[in-house]
Amino acid sequence: MGLGGVGGGGDHKAKVVMGEAGYVLEDVPHLSDYIPDLPTFSNPLQDNPAYSVVKQYFVNVDDTVAQKIVVHKDSPRGVHFRRAGPRQRVYFQSDDVHACIVTCGGLCPGLNTVIREIVCGLYHMYGVTRVLGIDGGYRGFYARNTIPLTPKVVNDIHKRGGTVLGTSRGGHDTSKIVDSIQDRGINQVYIIGGDGTQRGASVIFEEIKRRGLKVAVAGVPKTIDNDIPVIDRSFGFDTAVEEAQRAINAAHVEAESVENGIGVVKLMGRYSGFIAMYATLASRDVDCCLIPESPFYLEGEGGLYEYIENRLKENGHMVLVIAEGAGEKLFAQSIQSMSKQDASGNKLLPDVGLWISESIKDHFARQHKIAINLKYIDPTYMIRAIPSNASDNVYCTLLAQSAVHGAMAGYTGFTVGPVNGRHSYIPFYRIIERQNKVVVTDRMWARLLSSTNQPSFLSAKDVVEDKIDEEAVSQKLPDGEVCLENNSAMEKSVSST
Ligand SMILES: Nc1ncnc2c1ncn2[C@@H]1O[C@H](COP(=O)(O)OP(=O)(O)O)[C@@H](O)[C@H]1O
Ligand SMILES: O=P(O)(O)OC[C@H]1O[C@](O)(COP(=O)(O)O)[C@@H](O)[C@@H]1O
Ligand SMILES: [Mg+2]
Fold first, then answer.
1. Domains observed in the chain
2. Which of 232, 162, 149 is nearest to 399 (CA)?
3. Is the pLDDT reported for residue 483 higher than 70?
4. What kind and span of H or E run contains 378?
5. Which one of 56, 179, 219, 458 is CB 3.0 to 4.6 Å from 462, fit for a cystine?
6. Quick one: pLDDT at residue 273?
7. Residue whose CA is at the smallest distance from ligand 2 atom 1
8. What letters, b where the CB count within 10 A reaches 16 and e where it falls short, cover 71-86?
9. Which residues contact 345 (CB under 8 A, 6 or more apart)?
10. Beta bridge partner(s), residue 422
11. Which ligand is nearest to the CA of 168?
């Protein structure tokens, strides 16, 4: 493959391999990086009847996945990640593996499917029989009982919402967690959770490495908000967008059944408005979608109130979708509770749906021009609590199996996820360095604006300046890793790279 030397990548944790023509591999850590002379074993999958029909059941050790797939003739090949999948040689003997699984942070459709498939993957593909569930998130490592997991125990759990292991926010105590891992003789740790959880997983990995333990740490990214960068999308997102349609439909039915009806639907999305954007695009009944990434204003020309008034005059009703973190600055002016935090340190957001509904009602009451009839629907926790749909179930299976293959092959300190459709092992620092956000100067947001016909709440000048800024940012990147033209998967924000 013609790989060159090993570089630092500007980050002491980075394991970067440079190749020809601007090829960069951002590799993940391996147990052999800090434990010398580890024995390897042949992969038990070789004797698995299900896999023996597959021609190439092992991933080539040199296979990597390109982050940038839209390229120009002379552009460098850019950043790559190690391809996920089974390796010919593994670093654990089946009988020696003692695995554990933990789920942390907010609920998300598909958590139980990931748990199920990690357990079944370990049992059926690798003959591993010792798998523990950690009860109630990170603090469960040192404060709660563990739950033995077998294929029989997890057989039906993918049909249920939530997580059979329980979850929590806060309570991350690195040394107590690693003490517990060491005391219990656990040597594979599967950590399912969002950005906060992956930060926690990263420090657990660092501590394990510092202590020189032969323990593989694998992260499975969970976020209903789709706010994790690098990966194409997060599990549960598809289910959430689908389920949101039911709330939007209800809001539409309510709104169109009365004179000057307004249906308001709040959807999740603390910092990233992907659920609101995709649910709006899918529905076609939404007249306005408000997300955290696109500031808006209420009063005056081009403002929300003017748009609502025009829409009611034209159409007699309207539907508004708002993401929970939208309009934060506006909201903060009227409500003084924006500084509260949850146990994990996430900002606690007051109910933006209620606020926007009351603001609209007050405005039209003051105006005495139009008597509106507004119904507010908050389906957020109902959406989050359902089981994953078919497509998310398959996706969760792939994530879980990739994690198992990676840990068995001795990789550690990694998160799994699809990059341009190919499952990859991504170093923790890449996942936690920034959030994935909707880029409002990209074509997907333009599609949304053209489908709802809502104002952009930006003057033409602002948009042009933003576009120039983003082009400047992307040109500054050494490998041009973020392609602003790529709209095939979720758009990635360049603002914080
Ligand atoms: N920077 C961090 N270092 C260590 N642990 C963290 C960090 N941020 C969050 N965590 C832990 O990760 C878990 C989940 O985080 P949270 O932000 O609530 O959800 P999510 O992982 O879904 O974003 C919590 O137990 C929290 O204490
Ligand atoms: O009420 P909770 O449990 O704190 O959850 C609310 C938050 O959880 C989420 O659904 C997901 O957030 P995380 O992925 O960070 O857990 C957010 O959209 C929402 O703000
Ligand atoms: Mg989070």
1. 15-233+388-431 (3.40.50.450), 237-386 (3.40.50.460)
2. 232
3. no
4. none
5. 458
6. 98
7. 106
8. eeeeebebbbbbbbbb
9. 170, 196
10. 419
11. 1
Q: Is the minimum distance from the CB of 268 to ligand 2 under 6 angstroms?
A: yes
463 has a pLDDT exceeding 70:
no
Q: How confident is the model at residue 491 (pLDDT cuts 50, 70, 90)?
A: very low
Q: What's the CA-to-centroid distance between 102 and ligand 1, angstroms?
A: 12
DSSP secondary structure string for all residues of 438-481: --TTSHHHHHHHHHH----SS-HHHHHHHHHHHHHHHHHSTT--
The residue whose CB lies within 8 Å of the most ligand 1 atoms, and thus the one to mutate among 111, 199, 223, 428, is 199
User: How much is the pTM?
Assistant: 0.91
For ligand 2, atom 7, the nearest C-alpha belongs to 106
Q: Which residue has the tokens 């800090």?
A: 34
Give 265-291 pLDDT, tens digit per residue: 999 999 999 999 999 999 999 999 999
Question: What ipTM does the predicted assembly reach?
Answer: 0.98
Q: Which of 103, 104, 198, 436 to mutate to test the pocket of ligand 1 (most atoms within 8 A of CB)?
A: 104
Q: Over the stretch 170-180, which tens digit does the pLDDT of each residue have?
A: 999 999 999 99
Residue 365 has pLDDT above 70, yes or no: yes
Distance, in Å, from the CA atom of 440 to the CA atom of 272, rounded to the nearest integer, reads 11
Ion ligand 3 — residues with CB < 5 Å: 194-196
Q: Work out the average pLDDT over 434-450.
A: 95
